[in-house]
Design a protein that fits this description.
Shape: globular
Radius of gyration: 17 Å
CATH class: Alpha Beta
CATH architecture: 4-Layer Sandwich
Strand order of the largest sheet: 4-5-6-7-10-11
CATH superfamily: Carbon-nitrogen hydrolase
Number of domains: 1
Helix content: 10-25%
Distance between the termini: 43 Å
Mean pLDDT: 89
Order of helices and strands: EEEEEHEHEEEEEHH
Structural class: alpha+beta
Length: 198
């Protein structure tokens, strides 16, 4: 059975450049997600995305986050409200915070997270920046099903989507996890001007 792949690319659209995650399979583009949360150094080039949309792929609903997006709970919560069962996270980090955030996002949203981080090093503003790898697959209870090292690797893990919205702790807290999420209305507002690419 063929599957899909999520990857991040620079996207030029309507005079702006976005840091965009794309979801593709053997037939082509399924959908995309423009990065919303931009660190200051990215704001020099990239425009921020202004939409959060989960995508339907076969019998599953997939959300996408790009790097820093995962630091902001409303992004993953909005995907959850749209029914995301899996969130693909394309990223480029060197510090130790992002790997610790991902299990929390998986647990609080009762979805799987597949995070792919780069490896190696490059010069940025004259400084050598290293990337730690540690790509990971996290289950709906925040357990790491797999965590990579700092080398390139392909890994296949079977995900049981029946586990979504059925936390192991559910009998102690709630039998209807989704109804708790539906108490919130999460909106995305554009608040900053975007750079224009010439």
């Amino acid at each position: 059975m063929r599957g899909c792949i999520s990857e991040t690319i620079p996207e030029r659209f309507d005079g702006l450049i976005y840091n965009t995650a794309i979801l593709v399979d053997h037939t082509g583009l399924i959908g995309y997600q423009r990065k919303i949360q931009l660190p200051d150094y990215e704001k020099r080039l990239y425009a921020a995305g202004d939409a959060i949309n989960a995508l339907q792929y076969r019998d599953s609903t997939i959300g996408m986050m790009v790097c820093f997006d995962c630091w902001f709970a409303p992004v993953s919560a909005r995907l959850k409200l749209q029914g995301a069962e899996i969130s693909c996270h394309s990223t480029c980090f060197g510090g130790d915070v992002t790997p610790r955030i991902l299990p929390i996002r998986a647990l609080e949203n009762q979805c799987f997270i597949i995070s792919c981080n780069r490896i190696g090093a490059e010069r940025f503003d004259g400084l050598l920046e290293a990337y730690r790898g540690e790509s990971q697959i996290v289950d709906t209870d925040g357990n790491r099903l797999y965590i990579a090292g700092n080398t390139e690797v392909w890994i296949f893990v079977e995900l049981d989507l029946a586990a979504v919205n059925k936390p192991k702790f559910g009998s102690l807290i709630t039998g209807d996890f989704m109804s708790e999420h539906q108490k919130y209305a999460i909106e995305l507002r554009t608040v900053a001007s975007n750079p224009v690419v010439k």
